[in-house]
Design a protein that fits this description.
The chain is an alpha/beta fold and about 400 residues long. About 35% of the residues lie in helices and about 20% in strands. The protein has a single domain, classed as Peroxisomal Thiolase, Chain A, domain 1 (3-Layer(aba) Sandwich). A hairpin with a 2-residue loop joins strand 5 and strand 6. It is globular.
Length: about 400
């Protein structure tokens, strides 16, 4: 199917560090390492980078753009921006990069994400403590922690549409099967239904294997114009569509006040990205969903248009989203089995698939990839295509 939108930018280089449960390296060192790998992968030098885009929440605090630029040896930064929250900010980074490149403010834009949740005190459980509404109202009643927040979404989904442990297991088992074909995935051991059902309950209906990994590491990618990318060593991966959306709620209130519930803004960001690309869900070969918990994969399958409302629980049955399935989802293992790099590693995995660089994990004939990032109350959808 021909693409109706003239492509402005491409992802020209990607890079990642090793992802581990706990690292002895400071987060800035990890980010610099991943960024240097991405820049080298693009056939560029640090001095060629003149723009940086990061998310609006974690990165400006833990690895500010000026510190990263100084450590990399980047010269003048003509463009620096912080986008959406967390995973949405990373996946939506091409939106801001496109504005900078199209306007001539930058030629080569770097986006990065690093995490030290495995070694930092409190890990991902620390951020709700910084929200007064949660500390004063929710936490005294035991309403605390991401597994509980998302488990409540799963319970509501189960109440409305039905959801069995076996159907939840399909998501976790598919992620693990993809990770088994990914050399740098953190969790590659085979996973069976019996193994899933034997894992401990964390917050009903979630067992431990419904929950994302916690990891330290970093991932980065470089964006430039499609024309410049074609002069660089790697096959360009074109940004065909970008959609961003948010709900009219704060991060503090999202899990208790969001209506409709359960839902994410993917129902708006995905149609926008696909329409911009001139494509439909039927044209997508590879999907990389933000899968912090199994329920988010199910919700986004529906919200992105791959199945109808309430149908995701049956849609995933029979290995449909696993290796060899009709819709491969999270082909590196995702947050459930690869690493917790919010949406950054999802972007780089999509790039590898479209380059044809994934070896045993390659999806044959992959030409269109859809990537999502969730960072409540924000969501971003990215549609990537091969350079024809």
């Amino acid at each position: 199917m021909p693409y109706s939108k003239p492509v402005v930018i491409a992802i020209a280089g990607i890079g990642s560090t090793e992802h581990v449960r706990r690292s002895s390296r400071p987060i800035l060192d990890l980010i610099v390492d991943a960024s240097l790998r991405a820049i080298a992968d693009a056939g560029l030098r640090p001095t060629d980078i003149d723009g940086i885009v990061t998310d609006v929440s974690y990165m400006p605090l833990r690895a500010p753009a000026d510190e990263v630029a100084r450590a990399l040896g980047i010269g003048e930064r003509c463009f620096t921006a912080h986008g959406l929250v967390g995973g949405a900010g990373v996946v939506g980074a091409p939106h801001l990069a496109e504005l900078a490149i199209r306007s001539g403010q930058a030629r080569h834009v770097l986006s990065y994400y690093g995490a030290d949740f495995g070694s930092a005190p409190g890990g991902p459980y620390a951020f709700p403590v910084a929200l007064d509404a949660k500390v004063g109202i929710e936490m005294p009643f035991g309403w605390y922690g991401q597994p509980l927040y998302f488990a409540s979404m799963a319970q509501r989904y189960k109440h409305e549409f039905g959801l069995t442990p076996e159907q939840q297991a399909e998501v976790a088992i598919a992620a693990r099967a993809h990770a088994a074909r990914t050399p740098d995935a953190m969790r590659r051991q085979p996973l069976s239904l019996d193994g899933y059902l034997a894992s401990p309950m964390v917050a009903e209906p979630f067992r431990s294997l419904d929950c994302s990994l916690i990891s330290d590491g970093a991932t980065a990618f470089v964006m430039t114009s499609a024309e410049r990318a074609r002069e660089l060593p790697q096959r360009p991966v074109l940004v065909a569509g970008i959609g961003v959306a948010s709900v009219a709620e704060t991060q503090a209130g999202y899990f208790t006040q969001h209506n409709p519930y359960p839902a994410t803004p993917a129902s708006r960001s995905a149609p926008r990205a696909l329409a911009q690309a001139g494509l439909t869900p039927a044209d997508v070969d590879v999907v990389e969903f933000y899968d912090c918990f199994t329920i988010t994969t199910l919700l986004q399958l529906e919200e992105c248009g791959f199945c109808g409302r309430g149908e995701a629980s049956s849609f995933v049955e029979g290995g449909r989203i696993g290796p060899g399935g009709s819709l491969p989802v999270n082909t590196h293992g995702g947050l459930l089995s690869h690493s917790y790099m919010v949406g950054a590693e999802h972007v780089t995995e999509a790039v590898r698939q479209l380059r044809g660089d994934r070896g045993e994990g390659q999806v044959e004939g992959a030409e269109v990839a859809l990537v999502t990032g969730l960072g409540v109350p924000d969501h971003a959808t990215l549609v990537l295509t091969v350079d024809r």
